[in-house]
Amino acid sequence: MTSWTDVLEKSTGPIRTCVGCRDKVDASTLLRVVAVAGVLTPDPRHRLPGRGAWLHSRVECLDLAGRRRAFGRALRLASVTPESSEVREFLARVHRKQVDPS
Predict the structure, then answer these.
(1) How many CB atoms lie within 10 A of CB 18?
(2) Residue 71: which residues within 8 A CB-CB, separation 6 or more?
(3) d(CA 55, CA 20)
(4) Which of 41, 81, 89, 101 is most buried by a 10 A CB count?
(5) Which residue range(s) make up the domain with 81?
(6) CATH number at residue 63
(7) What's the rounded Cα separation, in Å, for the pair 53 and 80?
(8) What single-letter DSSP state applies at residue 1?
């Protein structure tokens, strides 16, 4: 877990908390997730309207957020499930690009 003073010293922009692991980091390192018509949608450009939840680009953080039901609280929605979202597919594509950059 990162302390606030460490984050503030290294930060160049807004600080956000990952809804999965609860680590506080610079927003530029996190994926913003919004609910569009009740479906979790990745917002990599941080531009979609509405309330957003912030997540590391790791499946582990997505799984943690799902177990903790963190998306519903962060987005102030009654029920949201990461398994039925586009976020898992987006994270898989990001991971494939990191493993095979060609």
Answers:
(1) 23
(2) 19, 33, 35, 40, 53, 65, 77, 80, 82
(3) 6
(4) 41
(5) 4-99
(6) 3.30.1230.10
(7) 12
(8) -
Question: Between these two residues, 31 and 10, which has the higher pLDDT value?
Answer: 31
Instruction: Supply the pLDDT for residue 11.
Output: 66
Rounded Cα distance, 15 and 35, in Å? 21
DSSP secondary structure letter of residue 32: E
Q: How many domains does the chain have?
A: 1
pTM value? Answer: 0.81
| Phi, psi angles (nearest 5°) of residue 98 | -70, -35
3-state DSSP assignment of residue 13: coil
Higher pLDDT, 99 or 31: 31
What is the rounded average pLDDT for all residues in the chain? 86
